[in-house]
Amino acid sequence: MTLAQALFSPRAIALVGASGDEAKNTARPQRYLSKYGYAGKIAPINASRAEVLGLKSYKSIKETPFAIDHAFIMVGDVEGALEDCGQAGVPVATIFTDGFADAGAAGMVRQQRLVARAQALGVRLLGPNSMGMINLAGRCPITVNAVLAMDIPPAGATSIVSQSGTMLGTVLSRGAARGLGFAKLISVGNEADIGVGEIVEMLAADAETRTILLFLETVRDAATLERAARAAHAAGKPVVAYKLGRSVLGQRLARSHTGALAGEDAALDAYFRDCGIVRVDMLETLIEIGPLLAGRKPPAKEYASRAPRVAVVTTTGGGAASVVDRLGMYGIEAASPDAQSPIIDLTMGKKAATYGDVVNELLAFPGCDAVLAVVGSSAQFEPQHAVEPIVKARSGARPGAKALAVFMTPQADRSLALLAQAGIAAFRTPEACADALRAFFSWRSPRQAPSGATLPWPGELPLRGQLNEEQSLHLFKTLGVAVVESAIAHAPDYAHALPYPVALKILSAEVAHKSDVGGVVLGVRDFQGLRENALKIGKATGKPVSQILVQCMEQGLAEAIVGYRDDPVAGPLVMVGAGGILAELYNDVVIRLAPVGEAEALEMIGQVKGFEVLRGYRGRPPGDLAALARAVAALSRLALIEGRPVREAEANPVIVKSRGAVAVDALAVLKDEEVKREE
Amino acid sequence: MTLAQALFSPRAIALVGASGDEAKNTARPQRYLSKYGYAGKIAPINASRAEVLGLKSYKSIKETPFAIDHAFIMVGDVEGALEDCGQAGVPVATIFTDGFADAGAAGMVRQQRLVARAQALGVRLLGPNSMGMINLAGRCPITVNAVLAMDIPPAGATSIVSQSGTMLGTVLSRGAARGLGFAKLISVGNEADIGVGEIVEMLAADAETRTILLFLETVRDAATLERAARAAHAAGKPVVAYKLGRSVLGQRLARSHTGALAGEDAALDAYFRDCGIVRVDMLETLIEIGPLLAGRKPPAKEYASRAPRVAVVTTTGGGAASVVDRLGMYGIEAASPDAQSPIIDLTMGKKAATYGDVVNELLAFPGCDAVLAVVGSSAQFEPQHAVEPIVKARSGARPGAKALAVFMTPQADRSLALLAQAGIAAFRTPEACADALRAFFSWRSPRQAPSGATLPWPGELPLRGQLNEEQSLHLFKTLGVAVVESAIAHAPDYAHALPYPVALKILSAEVAHKSDVGGVVLGVRDFQGLRENALKIGKATGKPVSQILVQCMEQGLAEAIVGYRDDPVAGPLVMVGAGGILAELYNDVVIRLAPVGEAEALEMIGQVKGFEVLRGYRGRPPGDLAALARAVAALSRLALIEGRPVREAEANPVIVKSRGAVAVDALAVLKDEEVKREE
Description:
Largest interface: A-B, 84 and 84 residues
Helix content of chain A: 25-40%
Structural class of chain A: alpha/beta
Shape of chain A: flat
Radius of gyration of chain A: 30 Å
Number of helices of chain A: 22
Number of strands of chain A: 30
Oligomer: homodimer
Strand content of chain A: 15-25%
Largest sheet of chain A: 7 strands, mixed
C-alpha cells in the first residue's frame, strides 16, 4: 500500500478520540464517513466507551482486530496515540490536535520531538493542526470540517491542498453552489512531515485529479514543491496558487497563525512563475479558474513581445466593459474581427446573428488568444438566449481549442452550474474573470532546471567572514560580471597605476555604510587629491587608513542595481532594478529564481520601467541592455557555486553605457556572517 | 407636480409602442406595472389595436381621457411621440429607443434636435437609450429590464443611478439574492436632457433614499453632479460610484458604447474625491458597501497623518488573513486590544469568550476605527455561533457607532440576508470587503467650494494665441508662483543685468519642443558664451535670433512638476508630481480639483512618492515642501481667472531648494489655441 493509498483511500480508519456525543466536533469524522457511505472499516478509539455512534469502539489502536491504514488523531495525548500507531504498524496518521508549531517556541520543540519519534516508528504524519482530508470520489472524508454538513457535493477532477483548514470548506461550499465538483481536498496543517509539495506529487500521479489548487500562507518545502510542479506539468495538470502574505501585515499574520516562516512575497511570486504554478490574486479566482486551465498547456512565450488579445461578445455593454476595463489595466487587449468596435455587442435584438454563431466565429478567429463571453439579464431566467448557445458552441469545438471564459452579470446560479457541467469556465464577478485571464496569460512552463554543473569557490577568497569590496569585486569578476578597474593603494605613498580621475573607497569589511560615514570620495583628480582624501577618510571613519581602494571613474547613461539572495523560503534569487532610488521608492525591480540565462535576464530587464531611459526614451541614446543582461546572468551563477556559500550579493550601481555595463560597487555576504548592508 | 414626482411617482403612465404580444420586450412595462401592483392609470399607446393585454389602448397620447404624467417611448418615431407629449402637456418622457448619441455623428445630430424640440415643448427627457426607472417602494416600474422577471425584490433605502441599463438589473438581482433592498433604480441612457447629476439632486431630496449608488462610464454633467453630491452630503446620504474607464481600453469602450466623452480616469478620481463621492474599485463592492456608509459621515481627516486601523475577530485564521492581507496592501493596519496578536482568532472552541462579547469589546475599543468580523463554516449552517451574535451586538450598540464589516468564507446566503436585514454590511468576497473598508477610509467631505472671488486676467498679456515662455512666467508670477529671474536680451549686443552663469532659451511661442530642437542652453558662464550660444540656437532652430530669454541658473535638491488643466469632463484640475521622468514613468502625480489651498497642496505633496528624497531620505537635507505647496496653490488659482481662459499650464521643472521652490520653465496654453506641449 502506497502512502497515497493510505492517505486518500485507506481500507480501515481509526478515529482516535471519537466522541459518542453527536454535537461534538470529534463526532464529526465518523458521522461524515457514514453519511458519505465510506466502504472500508472504521475503528472509533475511545478509552471510556465500548460503542460510539453505533460502532464497536476500542481503547487503543493496538486492540483493533483489523489493520488500520490511516489514523485520525483528535486527542490531546498525540504522543501516546503515535506510539500506538507505531506499534500497530499504521502507515499514516493525520493529527487534528493543535498546540505544536502553531503555539510558539515550546510547541515547536514538541513538534520536532513528535516528528523524530514518528520517523523512528515509521509513521508518516499529516498535520498537526490539520483539519483532515476529503476524498470525494472515493467517498472517504476523514475530517472535522463543518462544511460537510452540506448536501453531498458533486465529485470532480479538481483537487485542492490548503494550509488553512477552513478554506477547504470555503472552496468546497462555494464550488458546490455553482456546480463545481472536487476530487480530493487536503488540509496540511503545520506540515511537520508531509508537506504541500509531497501532496502535490501524489496528486500529479492521481488518476482522479486533473487540476491542482493551492491555498497557501507560505511555502515550507520549496524544492519538493518545485519538483512536484514539474511532475504535474509533465502530467498535463495545471497547478494554481492563491497565496496570502502579499502585504507585510499579511506576512505577519501568516506567521502568527501557523508558526510558518513567511517568505518575502516577491520572492515567492518569482518562485511560482518559475515552477510553472499559476498565481491568482483573488480567492474566487482560485475556485473558478479550473476549467480555463484544465487540459491546457501554458500559452506560448510570445506574450513577452506582444500583448495577449481577448475577443469579446456580450449582450450588455456595461457588463462587458466591467471585465474589459480591468483586462486593460493588466495590459491585455480586446481584439475583434469587426474593425468598428473592440467588442461585439448583441444587446437585445439589435443584431440578427445568434450568440452561438458569434462564439463559434470568435473561437475560430485567428486574431485572438482567448474568447470572453458576457451575458446579461438572460443568464438568470432565459439560458436559451445565450448560455445554452455557449455550451453548444464549446461542445462543438475541437478539444484544446481556444480558452473561453464566461462572465454573467446577474445572480445566475443555474447558468453557472450549467456551464460548470459543460466544463466551461464561468465567473461570478468581472474582477475574478479578468484576474483568471491575466493569470492564464502569465502562465509559463516550469523553467529549465539549472544544469547540474557546479562552480568552484575561488580558492583565493575566504569562506568565512565578510568579504571586503575588493574581494567582492573579484568574486563577481570570476563569475563573468564586468567590474570597474580597481587597485589597492597602500600608505604612505598610495602608489597605483590607474588613470585619473579616480574614486576612493575605504577598504574594510566592517564598515557597511561606507558612504554614510564619509568612506567614499568620487572624482579625485590627481595624486595630491588622493593623499588628502585618504587622510580625510581616515579622520571621518576614525581609523588611520593603511590601504585604500582606488577605482576608475565610470560614466554611463543610467544606473542599475543587480542583486542575488539565497532566500530561506524560495531559494536562490536574482534581481535587477532601476538604479538610484528608483528600485526602492517605486519597487521597480524584477526577480527570478537563480541562475538565469542571458535571454531570460533580458526579459527581466524588459520589465523594469526605469530602463525606459535606456530604450531610446525621448531621443536619448540607447543603453547596452545586452551587457546588463550578461551581468545579471553572471551574478545569478552564485546559485551554482558549490555549497552556495553566499547569502546575498549586490552590484549597486552597475553603470550602463552605450557599450557595456560595469559594476562599480560590489557587496557579498557569506552565510556564516550576519547580514550587513547599506540601508 | 414636481419633476421628481412625474418621474418616480406618476399618477398616469403612457406606454408608447406597448405590444400586445407578451413575448415581446415592448410588452414588458405593462406586465411589470401590473405585476408590481401599480396603483395609477396606464395608457398603452398602440396604433393598430384597441386593447393591449387587457387594457384599453389609444392611438396617441393626445387621445387619452386622463392627463399623462410620464410617457415611456418605445417606438422608432420618437420625434412624433414627443410632439404628442408636448401637445398633451406630458411633463416627462423616458425614451427607450436608441439610435441617438449612441449611434455616431448622425445620431448625435438627431439627439440635439430632439432635445431642442423637447425644450421648446416643455417636455423633460430621460434617455434616449434608457432602460427606464423602477420605483420599488412606490410599486412603479417603468422599464423593459428583463430582471423584473424575478420575484418582487424587497424595497430598501438604497437608490441607484446607472449609465448602463443592464447593470441596474445586475445590482437589483444580486442585491435581492442577499436580501438587500432598493428604493429607486434609474437608467439614464444617453443623458440628453436629465443627467446623473439632476437625478442625484432629486434623490438627495427623496424621503425613501438613504444611500445613492452610481454606475458610471463617464461624467457628463460634472458641475451639476458636484452640486448634487453636496446636497446629498448635507442630507447625510452617502454617494458611492463604480466607474468604468480606468484603463485606456475601458475608456475607448465607454466612448463607443454610449457616445460619451470619456474623461481621463485620474481626473475623475480627483473629482469624485473632492465631491465627497466614495469610489469603489469592484462591482460587488458597489452592491455591498451601502450599510457600511448609511447614516455615517466621512471619517475625520486624521488618516492623512496616520493609517486607519481595523480590529478583527474571526473563527478562521485563513479567512481573516484573506481580508487583512489585502487591507495591508491598502496601507490599513490591524489593531487589537490583545498585544500578542493583530487579530482575535476564536477558532473552534479555543477560547471561552463568545463571539458577540468580542464584537462588543472591539466596537468599544478606542484603538480602532472600524471592526471586521470574519465567520467561517458556521455561517453556512449554524448562524447561532457567530452571525446571530454579531446581529445582537450591533443592535445593542449606540446609533452611529463604529463601522462594522462582516466577511463570511462559505456560501452563506441566509446569513447574508440575516445581516442585510439588520443593516450590517456583509461581504461575499475578501476583496470586496477590503475594497469597501479602503473606500470608507478614503471618503472625504466635499471640498470647500471655491470662493466666488474671481481674478482678473493680467491686461498686459494677450488673450488669444499661445503665450511665449516669458509671458507664461509673468502669468505664473502674478498668481504668486515664485519664478526664476529672467530677462529678454536683444540682438546684437544681448545686454541684460542678470549675474552669470545663466540659461538661454529661444523665445518663441511657435517652438513647442524647445529642448529637442537645441533651443535651450544651460550654464552659460559669460557674455562671450551668451553670444556664441545665441548664434548656435539661431542655427539649430533655423531662425536668426533677434531676442533671447536669459534666466538665472537655479540649483536645488530635486525637481517637481506642477500642472493645471481645465478638463472638459471634470473641470479645472491641479497636479503635482515628482520631476524628471518620474512623473511620467511611474505616474507619480497627485491630482485635485482646482483651486486648492496651501494645506491641501501640502497634503497632495505628501502623497508623491518621489518627494521622499525631500523628506530627509537617507540623511539628505530636507526640501522646502511648504514653498512647493505655495507654488501648487498659486498655479491652481488659474481656475479663478475670469472666464477661465487657460486650457493648460505647466511649471516643469520647479526646483525645490532647502529654502524656496522656483519655477524655471513655464508653459501656458489658452483655450482658443491648439494644445502644444513638449512631449
